Amino acid sequence: MPRCTPRTTLDRPRTPRRFPKFLKAASICVLVAGLLSPLTQAAASGGTAEIAANDYCGGQCSDILPPGENGNATLAQILLNQVFGTQPDHAEDQLGPYSNLAAGYSTLTDDKINTFFNDASFGVASDQVASTTKPGGRTDVTIVRDKKSGVPHITGTTRYGTEYGAGFAAAQDRLWLMDVFRHVGRGQLTSFAGGAPSNQGLEQEFWRNAPYTEADLQAQIDSATANAGARGAQALTDANAYLDGINAYIDASDSGRYFPGEYVLTGHKDAITNAGTIDHFKLTDLVALASVIGALFGSGGGGEVNNALSLLAAQSQYGVTEGTKVWESFRERNDPEAALTVHNGESFPYATKPDTAQGEALPDAGSVAQEPLVYDRTGSAGTAKATGASATAAATSLTSAKRGMSNALVVSGKATASGHPIAVFGPQTGYFAPQLLMLQEIQGPGLSARGASFAGLSMYVELGRGQDYSWSATTSGQDIIDTYAVELCQDDTHYLYHGTCTAMDKVERTNSWKPTTADGTAAGSYRMQVYRTKYGPVEYRATVGGKKVAYTTLRSSYMHEADSIIGFQMLNDPDYVKSAATFQSAVQHINYTFNWFYADSAHTAYYNSGDNPVRAAGVDAEFPVWAQAAYEWQNWDPATNTAAYTPASAHPNSTDQDYYISWNNKQAKDYTTAPWGNGSVHRGNLLEDRVRKLVAAGGVTRSALTRAMADAALADLRAEDVLPKLLQVVRSSPVTDTTAAAAVTKLSDWVTAGARRKETSAGSKTYANADAIRILDAWWPLMVKAEFAPGLGTGLYTAFTANLPVDESPSAAHGPTGAHAGSSFQYGWWSYVDKDIRAVLGQPVQGALAQKYCGGGSLSTCRDILISTLKTAAGLTAAQVYPGDDQCSAGDQWCADSIVQRALGGIKHGRITWQNRPTYQQVVEYTSHR
Predict the structure, then answer these.
(1) Are 518 and 266 in contact (CB under 8 A)?
(2) pLDDT tens digit string along 812-849?
(3) How do strand 481-489 and strand 625-626 relate by DSSP bridges?
(4) Which residues contact 890 (CB under 8 A, 6 or more apart)?
């Protein structure tokens, strides 16, 4: 019987009513009793597994990935979870330790790190072996799972067997999730999992930018493997072995009836007769999966049409010259006050502003219309919730404010107590149940690594450790997407390509659904349609100088979703990565936009990856350009979507800098990133300030660096870096209004206490300084609008908010991350407020805004605006500031901030207290090297 997890630090989620209602129609006891026998596949218990001799970390590598390793659950386990809250083994056992760091970090010492993390040493001690499996009865691979977390440790004597085991273990832990995301990547989620508005939005968001046919997916496999020589051939062999392992598990779990219960609840399998099928995985499924992950985390750029609209609004408000100056000041392409990852002053120019722009194709005022994606809606596809989900999906897929997330803190051995480098790093991939990532250790010929991989792509460890080195990544966001204006000819589905009228390629996907036990959404259907050109998919229609055009987006990784496999293969190869230099060489083969970090026992390194196209002279990457040969990427071949790319030396890179920080901030001087908001205040400053102080003091330890990360994870960026300046303006004269004075006192006390959003005690579900937090949450959007809208004008202010959201507090349901997602304070107007308020105070500002906005530059008028909006904010109740949602009651501040493991299957988990940190995280300090 599955255990019942004590909920000491977890808050029980609300349970939708449809599952209990379903259970009332059957005998729970009879149903569960009939399903308990096949809960798990047969596995030999006991066995031995020794600590690996090739581990050079000396017991000082740790990791964590909530909620738990086990992401599969049978029907019986799902029903027990829904009714009684019980958890399958290892489904939730990493969630409590992960959550507890928020309360326990302040007294953390090195010997207590694994209270909050897993021991990430290679191998499993013999007394910690929970099970040993020979997948498919093979003799060349063994999967050992440890007692504490159930992580699979895969050891093979042949390369094929090793990869077969990796596929088998992936299916053991994430089969349903893998199936969900291969359908997301193909734009077929609703037909597979149900027509809930969230499912509609998810498939639309990704298919809009990657509308691949089956032939397209296969062509990407052929290209990636053919162009990489022996490594490409090995990758193809590895992938086929991996698929064989996945499919072996599908067959075994089907015949043994321990497959994920979601297949029954969504109507794909029959719980009584076992009728129905679970489709085998194939190579093209891996590309579909990769396209989703790449779009989520590794494709910086886009937003050129929105940029054009805000530029036109600025020029309309101020005139062309002054309007352009205002626009540039808000864009902050290369802000001199921005936090940098490479902070030694080295310059890496990329996507810089040309002296004289060439080929710009700005739209005529009022002519832009977004290209429709969804047609022929029937049934529930036509509801307001469904159309709202479509609108949100479109906005998310077309913005330059991509989901960034992830952070890294890396300190050189020169500043550590041991003399060895220390790293605390990991990706923020959101919080899901099951988690998008999974943990594994893989040991076999040419493979030696432990860490996290995206489910369904775990033939190699993608983020983790090798024998004597660890690596991780953060989303970088440099611009690899450009927008082209293709001139139409003949009709709306033909365009000029090098002077020839050419037909667009129409790709369609028709989906339909009906109610199931898992998703009661009423029956419905729709058709998705995308027109593709040689310059990419059509995203907008407009006129430019009276000519009808279609705006298309061309991404350098488009049609190249599989190319990065070579880089990941190298990272897992102990015979390839032996140094900082070989690490940098490996990640140069990854075409997605990431910041990569490395640490071994003596060296640290950084490299920014991505296929950065070499643009034609004079092209400004911020705006649409004409689809003409003169403005195309250099050496661009539309048949393969390949071009000339900037050389590795032109990418921000570094070795053995005193320290590195990254939280999706600016990489280096003169290196322009696509998202707005890389200015004087960025969440990267929360790491920069703390790590710089640690390094200056010296003697850094693993626990000290972890404490710095955890402290930043609870910080309110607005309160730490902007609020003191706002209060300086407010207090420039005595505050006589009692309401305002009381609010100022509360805010000041909060700043003095550290400006953290932290519980009064572990599990209290109440914040210290709760009133101050409520006031700032209410004040910020009111204050920003009152500060900037009068000077900018309503039209320009609205246009700028389309480029960059005003706020992204933990409780905010807007922005690219949404509510209950943990990641916060990536996108917002904190830099604008900071620069403007400092200017009004008469303080020096580098890279100042073009004008002073608060009170028109008058300190007294600015003060009046701040006090007026502060009084309004202070008068709003908690229920007004935190209106409640499907998770929380109105007025519940802690719950509004809390992190929810968003269910992608049938198992639900409790909420945890907010913290802004990586989902998968490593703490490492190597003691020796090969």
Answers:
(1) yes
(2) 765 555 789 999 999 999 999 999 999 999 999 999 99
(3) parallel
(4) 878, 879, 882, 883, 884
Distance of CA 30 to the CA centre of its chain: 42
Phi, psi of 666 (to 5 degrees): -65, 140
Give the integer Cα–Cα distance in Å for 477 and 192.
Answer: 32
* pLDDT tens, residue by residue, 500-532: 999 999 999 999 999 999 999 999 999 999 999
Q: Measured over all CA atoms, what is the biggest interatomic distance in the chain, rounded to whole angstroms?
A: 81
Distance CA 12, CA 17 (A): 15
Dihedral angle computed from the Cα positions of residues 518, 520, 521 and 523, in that order, rounded to the nearest 10 degrees: 100
The helix (run of H) or strand (run of E) holding residue 743 is helix 738-753
Q: What angle do CA 78, 84, 89 make, to 5 degrees?
A: 55
**Residues whose CB is less than 8 angstroms from the CB of residue 688 and which lie 6 or more positions away in sequence, other chains included:** 339, 661, 665
* Interatomic CA distance for residues 396 and 817, integer angstroms: 10
Provide the 10 A C-beta neighbour count for residue 431: 23
Task: Give φ, ψ of 605 to 5 degrees.
Answer: -155, 160
**Is 371 within 8 Å of 550 (Cβ atoms)?**
yes
DSSP string, 456-518: T-TTS-SEEE-SS-EEEEEE--B--EEEEEEEEESEEEEEEETTEEEEPEEEEEEEEE---SS
Q: End-to-end CA distance of the chain, in Å?
A: 46
Q: Which two tokens stand for residue 431?
A: 């919080």
What letters, b where the CB count within 10 A reaches 16 and e where it falls short, cover 626-642?
A: bbbeebbbeebeeeebb
Structure-block tokens of residue 239 = 């992938």
Q: Is the pTM of this model over 0.90?
A: yes
Task: Identify the burial level of 887 via C-beta atoms within 10 angstroms of its C-beta, where 0-12 means exposed, 13-18 middle and 19 or more buried.
Answer: middle
Contact between residue 322 and residue 850 where contact means Cβ atoms under 8 Å apart: yes
pLDDT tens-digit readout, 596-654? 999 999 999 999 999 999 999 999 999 999 999 999 999 999 999 999 999 999 999 99
Residues 894, 891: Cα–Cα separation, whole Å: 9
State CA 505 to chain mean position distance: 31
- Tens of pLDDT, residue by residue over 197-212, are 999 998 998 899 899 9
DSSP one-letter code for 876: S
Ramachandran region, residue 446 (left: φ > 0; alpha: ψ -120 to 50; beta: rest): left
